[in-house]
Specification:
The protein has about 220 residues and is of the alpha+beta class. The chain folds into 3 domains: about 60 residues; about 90 residues, K homology (KH) domain (GMP Synthetase, Chain A, domain 3, 2-Layer Sandwich); about 70 residues, R3H-like domain (Ribosomal Protein S8, Chain: A, domain 1, 2-Layer Sandwich), CATH 3.30.1370. Helix content is about 40%, strand content about 25%. Strands 1-3-2 form a 3-stranded antiparallel beta sheet, with helices on one face. The protein has a 3-stranded mixed beta sheet with strand order 4-5-6, with helices on both faces. The chain has a 3-stranded antiparallel beta sheet with strand order 7-9-8.
């Protein structure tokens, strides 16, 4: 079983770096947090996060028992939350391109409540994602690997971002000049890294600290 140990200012950054080096998605790896990051006082006593990321053998099932369990926990939580909010919608786990989405689907197209769940530029959906991941982590005692989506908003977002990343990568390959994308969360940065990896002559890396951490595409060294 291949594994790698990495440190970074945050757990997410350390995991992201290890996954990129191993060429794995979160669904294909197990993560062990050796040490949480700590800021310290006036820089004294600060420590970086340390993680060990291990590749794992794919189970016979396309999702695996752990991923199924996380999807069930997320769906149950979201169904209860939507009921308390008075929103009529169905919640369905859906494995797509190696990612386990937990989809929230409205009773009819362009339902106003679905727009409220997405929010401006997806901000409400992002908060819903983080809340669901906390619940999944607490109940399963595993690192959350599910992605919450509303009416395929995030899937469309992923497709657009991947296409844009490929365009930027091709432009960088032709110009020889690196280009930086806007800050984004770890999931979206992984989308960019995967897209750039498919273009010859270029490479990508993450720079900066959250919430300003972003991907830079540069000519391959």
């Amino acid at each position: 079983m291949e594994e790698i140990r990495r440190s970074a200012p945050s757990v997410e950054e350390a995991v992201e770096a290890a996954l990129k080096e191993l060429g794995l998605s979160e669904q294909e790896a197990d993560v062990e947090v050796i040490q949480e990051s700590r800021q310290g006082l006036f820089g004294v006593g600060a420590q970086e996060a340390i993680v060990v990321v291990r590749s794992r053998v794919r189970p016979d099932s396309p999702t695996g028992d752990e991923l199924d369990e996380q999807a069930e926990i997320a769906a149950e939580f979201l169904e209860g939350l939507l009921e308390r909010m008075g929103i009529a919608a169905s919640v369905e786990p859906n494995l797509e391109d190696g990612t386990m989405y937990v989809d929230i689907i409205g009773p009819e197209p362009d339902d106003e409540d679905m727009g409220l769940l997405i929010g401006r530029h997806g901000q409400t959906l992002e908060s819903l994602q983080e809340l669901t991941r906390v619940v999944v982590a607490q109940r399963s005692e595993m690192r959350p690997r599910i992605v919450v989506d509303v009416e395929d908003y995030r899937k469309r977002q992923v497709d657009r971002l991947a296409a844009r990343a490929r365009e930027i990568a091709k432009r960088v390959a032709g110009s020889g000049q690196e280009e930086a994308l806007e800050p984004m969360n770890p999931f979206m940065r992984k989308v960019v890294h995967d897209a750039v990896a498919g273009v010859s002559g270029v490479e990508s890396g993450s720079e900066g600290d959250d919430p300003e951490r972003h991907v830079v595409v540069r000519p391959r060294r």
